[in-house]
């Protein structure tokens, strides 16, 4: 196993290469506002981050990654276009897998540029790929934006679309909602009784818990409206399922998804963005004819990715986390921009994992 000094030395080298590519070195604080993270990800983030309390600043979290503080910094005072790089420790609880490190060094490169998003995607991917040259890695790519567009194109209610969008990053919950909205899963008896009632429920039984009466009645009204909505059409369900199953090289994946777009035309603009990205990657020397694309890839990563996503994996060491990951997070800049937004994409590398793989190769 590499020691700390080896890891820090490799991190410095990786960051230096990103500097040469145009990245300005930044070093956000270790402690981040828990309120901001909770607003973005809900209480789920508590299971993945270390939380502490400060009498003056309230709840704080040890930095779970760099992207959020870099976006906050850029949206507050950054020039355009901008490129940043960094290297330092991040902290994540690993209760589900105690063998994984809960503190590790992350090196990254982030691009904020509205002129050509496809070119920026290709730039980040190519630079990360170059840093990993010589390692035997499997590369996976995807595009969360295509799935979001597919959900938006479904012929169903805005409330159902919002629920599906919210759970794109939770595949099991997403699948359960789809089956319910398509009428494939029967409604539970308790819900049938609830939606068959009329008028407000509050006042007919003791109030238990912290929800106000108005909140309870609003929730019941929402369930009643959902029960009245027609199911998602079977041809759209079949098209969405076919989309989720796409796993091919980029050219063949594009071909398959264009066929699927006959029943889900809302994905066509996202497919054009994928086509432009593929062209930009090819211009940077990436062999897209051998580059894998998985339509479902990225659905279990951090929830701020909303477009291009990628990851590099050591197939001979499936026990290891990704050696590098990245993606596009335009919506995050809008959420943190206080009225402003800018297309943004970035990638991060684990120097400790690079050293581990190199050590195994030498031995």
TrEMBL record:
<keyword id="KW-0808">Transferase</keyword>
<dbReference type="InterPro" id="IPR006195">
    <property type="entry name" value="aa-tRNA-synth_II"/>
</dbReference>
<feature type="binding site">
    <location>
        <begin position="304"/>
        <end position="305"/>
    </location>
    <ligand>
        <name>L-histidine</name>
    </ligand>
</feature>
<dbReference type="InterPro" id="IPR004516">
    <property type="entry name" value="HisRS/HisZ"/>
</dbReference>
<keyword id="KW-0328">Glycosyltransferase</keyword>
<feature type="binding site">
    <location>
        <position position="110"/>
    </location>
    <ligand>
        <name>L-histidine</name>
    </ligand>
</feature>
<dbReference type="Pfam" id="PF13393">
    <property type="entry name" value="tRNA-synt_His"/>
</dbReference>
<feature type="binding site">
    <location>
        <begin position="65"/>
        <end position="67"/>
    </location>
    <ligand>
        <name>L-histidine</name>
    </ligand>
</feature>
<feature type="binding site">
    <location>
        <position position="92"/>
    </location>
    <ligand>
        <name>L-histidine</name>
    </ligand>
</feature>
<feature type="binding site">
    <location>
        <position position="106"/>
    </location>
    <ligand>
        <name>L-histidine</name>
    </ligand>
</feature>
<protein>
    <recommendedName>
        <fullName>Histidine--tRNA ligase</fullName>
    </recommendedName>
</protein>
<dbReference type="GO" id="GO:0006427">
    <property type="term" value="P:histidyl-tRNA aminoacylation"/>
</dbReference>
<dbReference type="GO" id="GO:0005737">
    <property type="term" value="C:cytoplasm"/>
</dbReference>
<feature type="binding site">
    <location>
        <position position="299"/>
    </location>
    <ligand>
        <name>L-histidine</name>
    </ligand>
</feature>
<feature type="domain" description="Aminoacyl-transfer RNA synthetases class-II family profile">
    <location>
        <begin position="14"/>
        <end position="351"/>
    </location>
</feature>
<dbReference type="GO" id="GO:0016757">
    <property type="term" value="F:glycosyltransferase activity"/>
</dbReference>
<dbReference type="InterPro" id="IPR045864">
    <property type="entry name" value="aa-tRNA-synth_II/BPL/LPL"/>
</dbReference>
<comment type="subunit">
    <text>Homodimer.</text>
</comment>
<dbReference type="InterPro" id="IPR041715">
    <property type="entry name" value="HisRS-like_core"/>
</dbReference>
<dbReference type="GO" id="GO:0004821">
    <property type="term" value="F:histidine-tRNA ligase activity"/>
</dbReference>
């Amino acid at each position: 196993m590499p020691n700390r000094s080896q890891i820090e030395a490799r991190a410095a080298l990786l960051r230096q290469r990103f500097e040469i590519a145009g990245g300005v070195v930044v070093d956000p604080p270790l402690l981040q506002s828990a309120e901001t993270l909770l607003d973005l990800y809900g209480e789920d983030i508590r299971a993945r981050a270390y939380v502490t309390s400060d009498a003056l600043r309230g709840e704080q979290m040890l930095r779970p990654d760099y992207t959020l503080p870099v976006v906050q910094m850029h949206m507050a005072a950054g020039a355009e276009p901008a490129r940043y790089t960094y290297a330092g420790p991040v902290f994540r609880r690993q209760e589900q897998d105690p063998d994984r490190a809960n503190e590790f060094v992350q090196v990254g490169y982030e691009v904020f540029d509205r002129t050509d998003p496809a070119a920026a995607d290709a730039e980040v991917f190519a630079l990360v790929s170059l840093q990993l040259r010589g390692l035997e890695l499997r590369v996976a790519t995807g595009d969360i934006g295509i799935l979001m567009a597919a959900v938006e194109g479904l012929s169903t209610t805005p409330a159902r679309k919002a629920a599906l969008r919210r759970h794109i990053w939770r595949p099991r919950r997403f699948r359960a909602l789809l089956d319910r909205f398509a009428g494939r899963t029967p409604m539970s008896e308790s819900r049938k009784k609830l939606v068959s009632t009329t008028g407000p429920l509050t006042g007919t039984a003791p109030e238990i818990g912290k929800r106000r009466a108005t909140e309870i009645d609003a929730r019941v009204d929402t369930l009643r409206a959902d029960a009245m909505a027609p199911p998602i059409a079977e041809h759209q369900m079949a098209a969405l399922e076919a989309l989720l199953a796409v796993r091919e090289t980029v050219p063949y994946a594009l071909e398959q998804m264009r066929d699927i777009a006959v029943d889900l035309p809302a994905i066509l603009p996202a497919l054009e963005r994928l086509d432009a990205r593929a062209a930009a990657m090819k211009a940077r020397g990436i062999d897209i004819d051998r580059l894998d694309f998985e339509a479902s890839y990225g659905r279990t990563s951090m929830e701020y990715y909303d477009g291009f996503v990628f990851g590099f994996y050591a197939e001979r060491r499936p026990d290891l986390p990704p050696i590098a990951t990245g993606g596009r997070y335009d919506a995050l800049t809008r959420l943190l921009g206080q009225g402003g937004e800018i297309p943004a994409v970035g990638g991060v590398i684990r120097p400790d994992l690079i050293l581990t793989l190199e050590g195994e190769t030498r031995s």
